[in-house]
Amino acid sequence: MKSSIRVAVALAGFALSVSAVCFAQSTGEAIYKQKCLNCHGLDGLANSGVGKVMKVKPVTDAEVRKMTEAEMVQATRNGIGKMEPYKNNLTDSQTRAVVAYFRTFLK
If we measure between CA atoms, which residue out of 95, 97, 70 comes closest to residue 85? Predict the structure, then answer.
């Protein structure tokens, strides 16, 4: 009996340590990697195959750089150019988080 309790406690500890690693990644970063990475690329430079085909503007583009955070949130919600709208797929909080993460590429 004691041995099965030890195994259960060990497994619970392992599960908690694995989940802690998952939570270490920010919500914005996780959403970006899931929803935006294919077109915008790992660093926002839109140098992926899909990004090039769709002619996605990189974060270094003057038009992108001048966008305010609010404008980027609206573009994410409603779509812009060939980008699909995410208003039905992301909550307001998730949208703000992914935009905040994307804006880290501006620095």
Answer: 95
Cα–Cα distance measured from residue 42 to residue 102, given in angstroms and rounded to the nearest whole number? 10
- Residue 17 counted as domain residue: no
How many domains does one find in the chain? 1
3-state secondary structure of 83: strand
Angle between helices 92-103 and 69-78 (to 10 degrees): 120
Give a yes or no: residue 71 inside a domain: yes
Instruction: Give residue 32's domain range.
Output: 26-106
Q: For residue range 1-25, what is the model confidence (pLDDT) as tens digits?
A: 666 665 444 445 544 444 444 444 5
Instruction: Output the pTM of the full model.
Output: 0.75
Q: What does the alpha-carbon distance between residue 92 and residue 83 come to, in Å, rounded to a whole number?
A: 18
